């Protein structure tokens, strides 16, 4: 029987072959695993390597699991951000080129915080694609799962910044390389050795990437990897609002951790109040370990089977909100990958979410996503100054 506490948003209930790669692989895009390990912000556990004693068909060898690795799956692209806020794309005098794409942002965010991360996705066999691969490598992100498509370009997005720093998007991807990732191009060994496998919903929009996404998530789930999902709603990319809602919810019940925004709650529930406990409760599936609701500068709400609450955010001057949610996710997953027991300890989880909130806050103070992602030292300094 479910139990809920409406004033504090609480509820609980019962919990119910390594492939050959056919794509072009350029030498300069070859990555390496991050040499960083992230010492937990809180005492608990130390990242380590261990052999998981479960072999998979076709592999022939047991998976060597990295107990702090987060593998991020999906799109990586170039954002063009206006140098002046509050103007339309047509009126903007110039644009700043910035690497982006939510899963890639999270991967870089984790590495910049001192964590271990890898990215799996596809870019064009073009200068932008090479540049993105190099940026991952320079930021200590394992990019060995990247593939290069000789027939499609790297995706581009022009981002309109309103005067309040909020955004509107115009995408160039008809199709772009990220949409063409195929199942036989996946690095299943990399997926299975992760502690957390993180993804969004944009990779569900078109085939063949949709099938690759589903296969990657299944391989991760079968290997005991924790699944992290940020829908990252981008309505202009979907054929219709209904297809977006259906696509996002089609994989909802397989995730262990879900991060959503207030706007996404309203969208998924077709206009219902995102602050209503009964509305949020509809999105909490029986096997979910953690549901996070981001509220911008106000902070976030958290829900587990045992407890829930709200953690205040850090107020800063907003320049560009691009990547803020991804920085929050990176801050959260960096700490969970180091110590999943945080999910059972509310005090330590709240500290972790305070850290994640500050990650998001610092990101909105600069233009672009990846260029603005903070270091661990910057986050801890901001926490110290705000105390």
Indicate the low-confidence ranges by residue numbers. 1-61
Structural class: alpha/beta
Strand order of the largest sheet: 9-8-5-12-13-14-15-16-17
Span between N and C termini?
A: 40 Å
Percent strand: 15-25%
Overall 3D form: globular
How can the largest sheet be summarized? 9 strands, mixed
Our count of helices gives: 10
Return Rg in Å. 20 Å
The percent of residues in helical segments reads 25-40%
Topology of this structure?
Blueprint: E1 3-5, E2 10-12, E3 49-55, E4 62-66, E5 69-73, E6 77-82, E7 95-100, H1 102-112, E8 116-124, H2 127-138, E9 142-149, E10 156-161, E11 167-172, H3 188-192, E12 196-199, H4 209-222, E13 226-229, H5 241-249, E14 257-261, H6 262-268, H7 277-282, E15 290-294, E16 299-303, E17 308-312, H8 324-338, H9 346-363, H10 376-386
Parallel strand pairs: 5-8, 5-12, 6-10, 8-9, 12-13, 13-14, 14-15
Antiparallel strand pairs: 1-2, 3-4, 6-7, 10-11, 15-16, 16-17
Helix pairs in contact: 1-8, 8-9, 9-10
How do you describe this structure in short?
With 387 residues, the chain is α/β, with parallel strands linked by helices.
Give an overview in words:
With 387 residues, the protein is an alpha/beta fold. Helices cover 28% and strands 24% of the residues. The chain contains 10 helices and 17 strands. It has a 9-stranded mixed sheet, sandwiched between helices. A 4-stranded mixed sheet has the order 7-6-10-11. Strands 1-2 form a two-stranded antiparallel sheet. It is globular, with a radius of gyration of 20 Å.
Features:
single chain; 387 residues; alpha/beta; nine-stranded mixed sheet; four-stranded mixed sheet; 10 helices; 17 strands; 28% helix; globular
